[in-house]
Amino acid sequence: MTIEPLTITISELYDGYINTDETNDVKGYGGKLNIRPAFQREFVYNDKQEKSVINSILNGYPINLFYWAKKESNNTTTYELLDGQQRTLSICRYLSKVFSIYPNNKVDSPKYFNNLTKEEKDKILNYKLEIKVFSGTDKEKLAWFEVINTVGVKLREQEMRNCIYNGSWVSLVKIEFSKQGKLMDNLFGDYIKGERNRQDYLEKALSWISNYQNISIVEYMAKHQNDTNIDEIVSYIKSVHGWLTTLFPKYRKEMKGVEWGILYNEYHIRKKTDTKLNSIDIETKISKLLKNDTIKKRSGVYEYVLDYDNPNREKHLDIRAFTENMRLFTYEKQNGKCGHCGKKCEISELEAHHIKEWFNGGTTTAENCILLCKDCHRKETSRLLKILP
Ligand SMILES: [Zn+2]
Q: Is the pTM of this model over 0.90?
């Protein structure tokens, strides 16, 4: 691995600049520099940051190092931008008159590049950019990228993975899974939390499909790195969406953030033939459960109804527990005895239960609390299991 310094002027950087949104093709430096390689995140600078880059240049201030990676094939040298994408794009966008600046903070006179004086234009065009050019293997590139990445806006884990497994598959998958109005946004935009253009949606889809195949996200990405289609993950995601919207046709805000792919992996085959899982019965159950305020984890109702034959399914709901004060109050009220058999017990030996069951509208309050000894607790628990909705 080697790192060589390179100095170019802004005029050289801007030479041959193209920026086509459809193909994500952004090039500069006579067409030799790929400004938006597959592993780079989307442009995230705001207006103010863009303007301040140009003002720094006009004032002759330094704007820090840029990092490129060198690629050689068939005796031609090309470069990929590793770090400095935001600054590079700010420069090129300004030169192509996408935005204006206020030289010397005179807010009443915005200036596009073409509005500058000859002297100001030259100052920008002749400004020298300091670049470190890296040559080495992909693995070395990544290790180095991680180091320089600690300086700027930190990359998310999935953005980093896109860098390691950069290739035809990543380029294709980013279009359908990270862009507005594309597949993942259309199907799961209402069901996933996080930022689409920071690769959170792609990460979610990958975590689901890799869980389905019992491998890790990086194993999945490594396996498909050089694929020239993304059919498998597309068809998987469509299946999850089809299953989800068939079983739960009514959308609710509680559905956002549920691990739908994981639920699909777990339940779609195991309980495919179950007649109990039909969307009408499910909807009745869910609408009733969501009115119950003893349920703390409201989004858990979906797994709860899917897991209907698991005796421990209550765990998905995180039922509100009795507080220490409620237990103390009840202990006094029961004169230190089990509420069913009357055996004398220490408070630590007693378990709190709802007198009227939570699923029948019983609240988690001192008035609805009963403390039971170990034996009575076991009996009560098995009685509840039989009548749990
Ligand atoms: Zn008892």
A: no
